[in-house]
Specification:
9 helices; single chain; eight-stranded mixed beta sheet; 363 residues; disordered C terminus; seven-stranded mixed beta sheet; alpha/beta
């Protein structure tokens, strides 16, 4: 068993992304989830998980209770150790300095040497209290109150190796998506080494760029020649040249999202950020026709998809043959809330845990 240390402000969304790298993700408390197994390499690629920790004990969010649990726990480690405590989102009121001192003392009593600079093992103590997130697509997200200390050995930490902020890239346009969000959406669509992700409305290329950075082959299309040129410029800057040193392939083409130049079932996942604005008109399409057509094409070429938009497109998604596995509302700023749909084609396996082809084994 592992504890997941979540990031961001939306635990249900973070847990859903974590489920692409772990099995049976269950929210325990603010910023903390439990899982039966992890793919450590995939955990390192996550956007909204800080780390995964091999479980040692779980108790109330209280230093004395945590120390007692550590005294009683089976510790299958040798070598030097360090303790790192965290009051998750300042919810528990626990003094992390006191927690580290007390828990470190327990480890010394049990024969470990403490090395704060270069330990062989790091024991993480996560203290959290308050209501769990509420969401019907995430186990444990029931809105109930929680009070928890999760003790675990650090097993895998997220690299957070995103592309630079959009304003720092060679090609930029206002409204470009933050790299962490693009990474999360790419992960939810199944991006991973050996897989191919398609963005049929790529804009500056942020979503497929993050897919490429986690090792997936990336295919990007856009109706505007300017965006195609700009996305290529960004890919050349941050992704290796296709065909060199086992680097993932990437392709950028001009194309209509409602009539993709892609064969049936040619890719493993689709992710796209639909245009915003109720009066939007793109090329020859009205917005509703564009999104509906893009959803239909996505269902033709891939078994899973993630749609990001400024409104809820569940009805058109279902009409296009998709099953809605999860729907999230993510506030960006005062005037924009992103609606995120995690979609599965009717003939595809459920996506509540690790996607097919990704292992979920202990390190």
């Amino acid at each position: 068993m592992y504890w997941l240390e979540l990031a961001g402000e939306t635990d249900a969304f973070a847990a859903r992304e974590a489920a692409t790298a772990a099995t049976g993700v269950d929210l325990l408390a603010p910023g903390i989830a439990r899982t039966g197994g992890i793919d450590a390499a995939h955990v390192r690629r996550l956007a909204y998980t800080r780390a995964a920790h091999e479980a040692v004990a779980r108790t109330d969010a209280d230093v004395d209770a945590a120390a007692a649990a550590l005294r009683a726990a089976s510790l299958d480690r040798s070598g030097s150790v360090a303790v790192r405590a965290r009051d998750v989102r300042a919810t528990s009121g626990v003094s992390t300095e006191t927690a580290e001192r007390e828990l470190g003392g327990v480890l010394v009593d049990r024969g470990f040497d403490v090395d704060l600079d270069d330990p062989d093992h790091v024991l993480r103590a996560l203290f959290a209290a308050g209501p769990r997130a509420e969401h019907d697509a995430v186990a444990g997200a029931d809105g109930g109150d929680a009070d928890c200390c999760a003790l675990g050995w650090v097993a895998a930490e997220a690299a957070r190796d995103f592309a630079p902020n959009p304003t720092d890239r060679p090609f930029f346009q206002p409204g470009s998506m933050a790299p962490a969000d693009a990474r999360a959406y790419a992960n939810l669509a199944g991006a991973a080494p050996g897989r191919t992700l398609l963005d049929p409305m790529c804009g500056t290329g942020g979503l497929p760029l993050e897919a490429g950075l986690v090792g997936a082959d990336a295919v990007a299309c856009d109706a505007q020649a300017k965006m195609v040129r700009g996305a290529r410029e960004n890919f050349r800057e941050y992704l290796a040249t296709p065909g060199t040193d086992d680097a993932p392939d990437w392709h950028v083409a001009r194309g209509d999202a409602t009539a993709l130049p892609v064969a049936d079932d040619a890719v493993d996942g689709v992710a796209f950020d639909a245009p915003y604005g109720r009066q939007s008109k793109i090329a020859r399409h009205e917005l509703a026709d564009l999104v509906a057509g893009a959803l239909a094409e996505a269902a033709r070429v891939a078994p899973r998809a993630v749609l990001v938009a400024d409104r809820d497109w569940r009805a058109p998604a279902r009409e296009a043959g998709w099953t809605v596995d999860a729907a999230f509302e993510r506030r960006v700023h005062r005037s924009l809330t992103r609606h995120v749909l995690v979609l599965r084609r009717g003939d595809a396996a459920g996506s509540g845990g690790v996607p097919t082809g990704i292992s979920a084994e202990r390190e």
